[in-house]
Amino acid sequence: MLRKLLIGTALGSGLAFAAHAQDVKEVEMLHWWTSGGEAAALNVLKEDLSKQGFAWKDVPVAGGGGDAAMTALKAMVAAGNYPTASQMLGYTVLDYAAAGVMGDLTETAVKEGWDKSVPAALQKFSVYDGKWVAAPVNVHSVNWLWINKAVMDKIGGTEPKTFDDFIALLDKAKAAGVIPLALGGQNWQEATMFDSVVLSTGGPEFYKKAFNDLDEEQLKSDTMKKSFDNLAKLVTYVDPNFSGRDWNLATAMVIKGDALVQVMGDWAKGEFNAAKKTPGTDFLCYRFPGTDGSVVYNSDMFGMFDVPDDRKAAQAALATATLSKSFQSAFNVVKGSVPARTDVPDTDFDACGKKGMADLKAANEGGTLFGSLAQGYGAPPAVANAYKDVVSKFVHGQIKTSDEAVTQLVNAIEDAK
Amino acid sequence: MTTVATQIKLTPEHNARPGASMRSRLQDALPKLVLAPSFAITVVFVYGFILWTVYLSFTNSKTFPSYAITGSRAYQRLWRWTFESDPPSSWYTSITNMGIFGFLYIFICLALGLFLAILLDQKIRGEGMLRPIYLYPMALSFIVTGVAWKWFLDPGLGLEQTLHQWGWTSFHFDWIKNKDFVIYTVVIAGVWQASGFIMAMFLAGLRGIDGEIMKAAQIDGATTFQLYRRIVIPLLRPVFLSAFIVLAHLAIKSYDLVVALTSGGPGGSAWLPSNFMYEYTFKRNEMAVGSASAVIMLMTITAIIVPYLYSELREKPR
């Protein structure tokens, strides 16, 4: 009896040991995609992996924008408890890579040919020191207008091609008694709109020099002053109650027809989809006037951490699945963004998605794909937030003139560098 | 079980000294042993981390802590921002808001709490029901308070909208959307939450006052006002101390209320130093500046609380 027990225990522990030496078939994933549509989109990946026999350990940290998730990640990494992967944005990936905690996906990347299929601008953030450290999931672009078609028809508007057209269109809406511009008065929304205004006012070359290279000459130029003046013009078309409003409530105003247009990234399309609206018949998506041909982007990435060897196989499977064409298509159809590789067929996407994909491809080839400063893809977080401060203070009147705004912008960015 | 216990109890009496001394030594050490873990935890996790924060504020820590001391650049930046009032720097906004909020919140809570407590102390009917009604807001988290008041004060949803629908269309109350007044809405919500609790503290104090003193004063011909002004309020002094300390720390750590109620306010105009600290440390990856601001907050609190505690507690032995 005793001997049997002993043998059993020995066998048991031997088995456990053997299992331990094998690969751990599990991916641990930290993310903040907890809202309905986003969770559904992520579920696609979960199912892909479970088909290959990998278990999914979910570490969701709610809170749009991911501040809470990033705080949690910082704690996990500081404790040496790296997740397999974490949702990350732009410079955060590079910060963690510089701290030496990211894994190396180069082998997978070479096998899958990511170098050619992922836009070069994105590789700036997913490749560190020659090594792939993150798998981009999608590309959002921010220079979009979202227009309620019924309201547009009522006021007899047409697609605005220039900034002046846009102002004329907003005037028409105002005359018809609709709120012309739906804006949420939170700093990131104001700055996101300002990204488009700058691109429209100064053109692609100017945007790149000012907001990606942080060239001081451009930042304090008259073109930048004019951009602030244009922003001030736009702000006169918002309703008095805009301050502090969440972005999805602003989108809802357009969906319901209370407002004509919102300037917002393509995640706004998710709200239209959720309200069962169809592009072309219920709502219209145009590029922000004067920015057609350029794309100001941000991108969600899965940063891959330097996990123990027995977890590397699961990590590679996750990365491969993330950038597979089928997942890129299925995920981005649900999420409202466009695939992070330019060779995915656009058959499943709606009209706005197709346009977004074509634009991304053209911008990638034409060199007009720029990181959004407001979304943390133009400069590190310290600079990006200093920029948001200045724009927001200008919108809300703490900064009174465009001259002052430009001076403040230069100082704030200099200070934060 | 009982036999074992008695045996142990008996042993020292029958046996020699070593056991007895062991036991008495254990008895002497017991309080220290029991307190040691919590003492150690406090030392490490409160005072240890305070020192660590001070240390970090002199480094150039960005996203992650870095341990090379690089000087007081973080403090220099904060010092410069302290005087940037036009347009206001975020730090300037934070500290002026702290002044406005801290003063009004503590003062109004104390005044309102005392007033309510005196009213409730008039032997009125239904006190048992009224007291919890005032006390209840304290049971809510700041997030709930913030969200509820955000909706109530929003001109498009709450009070203003309702009054417009009832026909009073000239009514206008948009403080929560106004960069110059948004901090006062934080005061309103904060006072709503805490004044009931302060009332309960004062009520307990009032109930503790000896009825004989009151009667004596009344016989001597004191008016009700004089009675409260000269006798009751001075007797409540210890309650003022406790209430002040409770309110002061609530005021200084108000972070969630600002976030839930105003999400920072238009152009960051509702920030308090705690918001500043969190923003810089975790969102802007400027850990050194965040730490420096935390150290300055601690210094300020110390400068206010310590002299007050000293003056209040020193009188005891007399």
Automatic annotation (TrEMBL), chain A:
What keywords are annotated for this sequence in UniProt?
Periplasm, Signal, Sugar transport, Transport
Task: Spell out the Pfam families in the cross-references.
Answer: SBP_bac_1 (PF01547)
Location in the cell reads: Periplasm
Signal peptide span per the entry? Answer: 1-21
**Superkingdom of the organism of origin:** Bacteria
Coarse class of the primary localization is periplasm
Keyword presence, Signal: yes
A GO CC term?
Answer: periplasmic space
InterPro entries, A to Z = Bact_solute-bd_prot1, SBP
Q: What family classification does the UniProt entry report for this protein?
A: Belongs to the bacterial solute-binding protein 1 family.
Describe the task this protein carries out: Part of a binding-protein-dependent transport system for a sugar.
Q: What protein does this entry describe?
A: Probable sugar-binding periplasmic protein
Native source species: Mesorhizobium mediterraneum
From TrEMBL, chain B:
Biological process, per Gene Ontology: transmembrane transport
Has the keyword Nucleotide-binding been applied to this entry? no
PROSITE patterns per record: ABC_TM1
Q: Where in the cell is it found?
A: Cell membrane
Q: Where is the ABC transmembrane type-1 domain positioned along the sequence?
A: 95-310
The regions listed as transmembrane in this protein's record are: 33-55, 98-121, 133-152, 181-206, 227-252, 287-310
Q: Which domain of life is it from?
A: Bacteria
Q: Which CDD domains match?
A: TM_PBP2
Q: InterPro entries recorded for this chain?
A: ABC_transporter_permease (IPR051393), MetI-like (IPR000515), MetI-like_sf (IPR035906)
Q: Keywords, A to Z?
A: Cell membrane, Membrane, Transmembrane, Transmembrane helix, Transport
Q: How does it sit in the membrane?
A: Multi-pass membrane protein
Key word Transmembrane present: yes
Pfam families on file? BPD_transp_1 (PF00528)
Identify one Gene Ontology CC term for this UniProt entry: plasma membrane
- Can you tell me which family this protein belongs to? Belongs to the binding-protein-dependent transport system permease family.
Protein name, as recorded = ABC transporter permease
